Amino acid sequence: MRPTLADIHAAANRIRGVADATPLVPSANLSDLAGAEGLLKLESMQPIGAFKLRGALNAVAGLEGAAGVTCCSTGNHGRGVAFAARQKRMRAVICMSRLVPQAKVDGIRALGAEVRIVGNSQDDAQAEAERLEAQEGLAQISPFDDPLVVAGQGTIGLEIMAARPDIGTLLVPLSGGGLAAGVALAAKAIKPSVRVIGISMDRGAAMYQSLRAGHPVAVTEVPSLADSLGGGIGLNNRLTFGMCRDLLDDIVLVTEAEIYRAMQAVYHNDRLIAEGACVVGIAALQAGKLDGKLADGPVATIITGRNPDMGLFTRVVTGQDVQLGDVTVKGERHGA
Ligand SMILES: *Cc1c(COP(=O)(O)O)cnc(C)c1O
């Protein structure tokens, strides 16, 4: 059940030429914050604007002859599955909650997939994907809790370690844990001393709460600047809970105000359009929450996606207030 380094190499062969070889670029801002060489792995350069294409391509590759595919998604996984299904001329039905930004819904429709908007949480969307699996015979691809998806995301770890075997610490955005589990598995298989730290937003940090409880727990899903990190890990989690428990050295949580400041920093200093979900590592550094937690050597983080709601993004980078459900993040100009 648990993927191995060999599975990650096999995934790398399957996705080659479509979803691999994203740039690993130096960041003066990350270097300053980390007090060590700082590197950004630009998964935002993927054809769908997010790393999830890796796992989706790897999972869909094994579905020759299926009637079609379905999944629940906070947006980027659905886009990856839609892309992979279109390549195979396969039907794709993507289930999402009303919390998913319209830009992500539009991106999925543009790839020719059917979209179902159901309920207010990932759990509601997942129930619909399960119904489609049972009633219409579509193959369901979990956004994270699937060995092929974890192996696909793990190819990011292979690429980082191949480019820079001297990496000391990897800061990995953490939601369902497919990314963190895959990257940690690959990186530690290659270099056991590498430190891998998962970062989540403090409101609805499903993996963090579950690891603390010792078993998967449900969390309340609320609007967040890191919308791609929303949702639970599944009460019947089979894979990523155990892998994150065994492979992550630490998990750190950041607030919405910290994510806000990090989105500004990445935009103004690195000149990147990055979702709130991908700047959480930088947010943790800016907030001093990683003091004493970094290993010797370069620090790399993964810019996981570039698909924010652009209206919200513009408000953040221009220093305006943003409203997230009943929480207001006070506007603050970058560098003020
Ligand atoms: C899905 C996603 C993540 C988190 O990945 P998990 O495998 O669920 O932990 C982080 N950033 C972005 C942009 C995502 O789409």
From TrEMBL:
Q: Which UniProt keywords apply?
A: Lyase, Pyridoxal phosphate
Q: Which SUPFAM superfamilies match?
A: Tryptophan synthase beta subunit-like PLP-dependent enzymes
What GO terms in the biological process aspect are recorded for it?
isoleucine biosynthetic process; L-serine catabolic process; L-threonine catabolic process
> Known Pfam families for this protein?
PALP
The source's domain of life comes to: Bacteria
Question: Is Lyase given among the entry's keywords?
Answer: yes
One GO MF term attached to the UniProt entry: threonine deaminase activity
**Sequence ranges assigned to domain Tryptophan synthase beta chain-like PALP in this UniProt record:** 21-305
The UniProt record lists the keyword Metal-binding: no
What does this protein need as cofactor? Answer: pyridoxal 5'-phosphate
Family affiliation: Belongs to the serine/threonine dehydratase family.
Q: What is this protein called?
A: Hydroxyectoine utilization dehydratase EutB
